[in-house]
Amino acid sequence: MKLKKSWISLLSLVAIVAVGCASGGGTISEESLGLRKTNLYTEKSETVGEVATYGKAAAGTSKRFDRAFENAPPMIPHDVEGMLPIKIGNNACTGCHMPEVASSMGATPIPKSHFASFRPITTIAKNGAVVKEGKAVKNTSDFKTVVHKLDKLSNARFNCSQCHAPQSTGAPLVGNTFTPDFQSKDAKHRSNLIDTINEGVK
Ligand code: HEC
Ligand code: HEC
After folding, report:
1. What confidence score (pLDDT) does residue 185 get?
2. What confidence category does residue 31 fall into, taking pLDDT thresholds of 50, 70 and 90?
């Protein structure tokens, strides 16, 4: 219902402008204009953002979140205390999530997409043409995604927390009304990007 309030604020702004222009009358306090309900002219401690708090359930005892949309990177449902920052020689995430250990840990295995490179092999020909995967291309964005399978975790995926984050338990000021559509029941809690990466691409 908070969303409605923000619409009302927007409408009242339009109304003030309209009324203001027409008759010069009608005032609305600034406090009622935004999501912030405190005086706009003071920076007293009354205006503080909500502290972001995270679930404390340890890995192995947390409940997975549904995916935000098909093939969205899943949010981390468990506590990451002591696991971050990820360092070259110390990546706790892989210790439980590598496919060869994941099932024994009860963790979701790192998907095949993370063991692949989607970057086309690109060179510049003598005549200056951009060559992708051995083919000169005029428009570099006009290129079907290639999948180069790797025999190890892609370096581009090593820093898990670049894309996967814990979910804060804070209540958003404006509720999210987005509801995703999934192409299959499975897609709500598993990903299959490696199989669908070129879906809809001619
Ligand atoms: C001690 C083992 C362990 C470690 C270390 C660990 N995880 Fe997990 N992870 C799990 C388990 C087990 C689950 C399944 C939920 C549960 O049982 O708590 C999980 C779930 C997840 C999920 C949700 C997967 C889904 O299908 O929705 C993500 C994302 C994730 N972990 C990312 C990470 C990242 C990133 C790190 C490193 C910062 C990490 N995990 C470290 C064991 C671990
Ligand atoms: C560049 C962004 C990025 C990085 C870095 C990354 N991931 Fe992901 N991850 C994704 C996306 C996007 C998906 C969902 C689509 C897919 O399967 O590729 C995903 C999916 C997953 C899944 C769900 C697999 C399933 O079958 O549903 C797990 C588990 C996971 N990642 C773990 C990890 C771990 C652990 C790391 C670090 C070693 C990592 N990811 C690094 C973007 C990333």
Report:
1. 93
2. low
Residue 160 beta carbon below 6 angstroms from any ligand 1 atom = yes
23/117 same-domain check: no
My answer on whether 158 and 88 are in the same domain is yes
User: Is the domain of 13 the same as that of 80?
Assistant: no
- Asked if residue 58 and residue 96 are part of one domain, the reply reads yes
Which residue, chain included where needed, has tokens 């990466």?
197
In ligand 2, the atom with minimum distance to the C-alpha of 102 is 29
Average pLDDT over residues 185-195: 94
SS3 per residue for 131-179: EECCEEECCCCCCCCCCEECCCCCHHHCCHHHCCCECECCCCCCCCCCC
The domain tally of the chain equals: 3
**Which ligand has the shortest distance to the CA of 83?**
1
**Which protein residue has the closest C-alpha to ligand 1 atom 37?**
93
Which residue segment(s) compose the domain that 7 sits in?
A: 1-38
Q: Give pTM, 2 decimals.
A: 0.84
